[in-house]
Amino acid sequence: MPRYANRFWLAALVVAWAVDFLFFSQTPGVSLLIWMLLVLAAGLFLARSEGVRLSPLTWVLVGLLVLLSAIPFLRAEPFSAGMGTLLSIGGLMLLAATFRTGNWLYNRTWDTIGELLGVMIAALFRPFDLFKAQPARVEDGALDAAGKRSFWRGAAPVLRGVLLAIPVVAVLAALLSSADLVFADRLKSLLSIFDIEKLPQYIFRLVYISILTYLFAGVYLHALLPGKAAARPDSSQPVVNPFLGWTETAIVLGAVVLLFAFFVVLQFQYLFGGQVNITAAGYTYSEYARRGFSELVAVAVLSLLLTLTLGSVARRETASQRATFTVMTVALLVLVLVILGSALQRLLLYEQAYGFTRLRTYTLIFIPWLALLLLAALGLELGHRGGRFGLALLIAIAGFGLTVGAFNVDGFIARQNIERGLRGEEFDRAYLGELSTDAVPVMMRYFQQPGLDPVIRDGLGAELACQAQVVLNTSQQSWKSFTVSRATAQQVLAGRDWKDYPVALRDGTYYVTVGKKQDPCSGYSGMD
């Protein structure tokens, strides 16, 4: 039982209210970082109050959470901000599950999944323990009932005073409003936040703040005072007792290895062999390259899941069976790495032929991290330490999220597509209109280059003028939605004359004029 149950409720209420204050009807920005710092500060305060000592490994996870929650503060590109948000929430749940133990470093994959489910269950049921919690005890072991009575004895007069003051202040405020019109206007503005027409909204927000308070109280209690002490997982022990026979396992692995080997031979003959072999088979190089890179990435992911599943459920009762399983698993993973290389090769060729989009860039970042994860799985299998794959998976997921946030996806896309245009290939100006303010500094650097091709210059000027219209002339966002990306774009675009690319609003859509042609200030979506 907690020593100070009321502090848990207070911390949970502050964190829940912060969700409403920072995120209700707001685009995430610096708000996520502020909220994360508040959540962590409240948890450390409760730990100090309860005399709980956290594991040194917990500080590593705390630092990672701060970095992840800073991504929406830095980037406006939706996927980067979304990854930072999702991984921050998932990381908080993992922190709550391993706050005292630091077991996240030693967990097997299923241990982590089980602990995350445990946090969800604790959020629903552990708050009942706070209702049953006793007051804090004094040094001699007796209940400090006198202290509790003293608290309520001091709080009761305050509550009665507030109730008595409300009607008195209301009458006097009405008289002062009649006497002074300026005072009346200011008072009316102050009271406008209590607009009776917004009563349903207030009720809705009050309800979900109450629900979140209940859930956060359970999570904090589970993190600091878990129902039972969690032992450090033994990665050498299987999560489940193996039940799949060796014959079935060998057939499945052998069949997949043969299939992949046949596919890899074709890749070396055609894709890796060059354009001549592909055209001899009746395909153009672009036709062959544009197909299948997403499917091949899916094959790599499914193959990794297959090896992990078989490693957990397959019986290997003799030394020869264990050695054969290792050989086939290593062969499978090596072939999957080659297939992943084929996917990367296709993707690069496709981007060279058709340009860069967000989805293609996400895949370009994902493939190296998946390759590292496959290499980790291969090394762990050779070292007979497959139970440590859970840590490798956590590192890969966090690494991918941080890489996407640090990479500046939209800036990269803008730079690559502009460079394609400078090489004489098709310049896809319309897609630049889909990019966020992350791309503005890159586009401005090229726009300012002397001797730039007029077509590319006009395309960049049009998109920058559209960005300037949105960033500089639309109503300012709340400070809660502040991002470094938008602030940088404002600084880059401010004070410049865009009269050569006038922007006008028509039928709810902004149009930019380039020469005698008008185009909408937006690109197109649905690109793969």
Q: Care to give the gist of this entry?
A:
The protein has 22 helices and three strands. It is an all-alpha fold and 528 residues long.
Please, could you describe this protein's structure?
The protein is mainly alpha-helical. It has three domains: 1-145 and 181-234, no CATH class; 246-384; 410-520, no CATH class. The protein contains 22 helices and three strands. It has helices spanning 5-23, 30-50, 56-69, 71-74, 78-97, 109-125, 127-132, 145-179, 181-191, 199-224, 246-269, 275-280, 285-290, 293-313, 319-354, 358-382, 389-407, 409-422, 429-432, 440-447, 454-473, 484-493; strands at residues 503-506, 509-514, 517-520. Strand 1 (503-506) and strand 2 (509-514) form a beta hairpin. Helix 1 (5-23) packs antiparallel against helix 2, helix 11 (246-269) packs parallel to helix 15 and helix 15 (319-354) runs antiparallel to helix 16.
Poorly predicted runs? 138-144, 276-281, 524-528
Structural class, judged by helices and strands? mainly alpha
Strand order of the largest sheet: 1-2-3
Work out the number of β strands.
3
Order of helices and strands: HHHHHHHHHHHHHHHHHHHHHHEEE
Number of domains: 3
Beta-strand portion reads under 5%
DSSP helix count? 22
Shape designation: flat
Distance between the termini: 54 Å
Q: What does the radius of gyration come to?
A: 30 Å
Helix content: 55-70%
The chain-level mean pLDDT equals 84
Described by strand count, sense and barrel closure, the largest sheet is: 3 strands, antiparallel
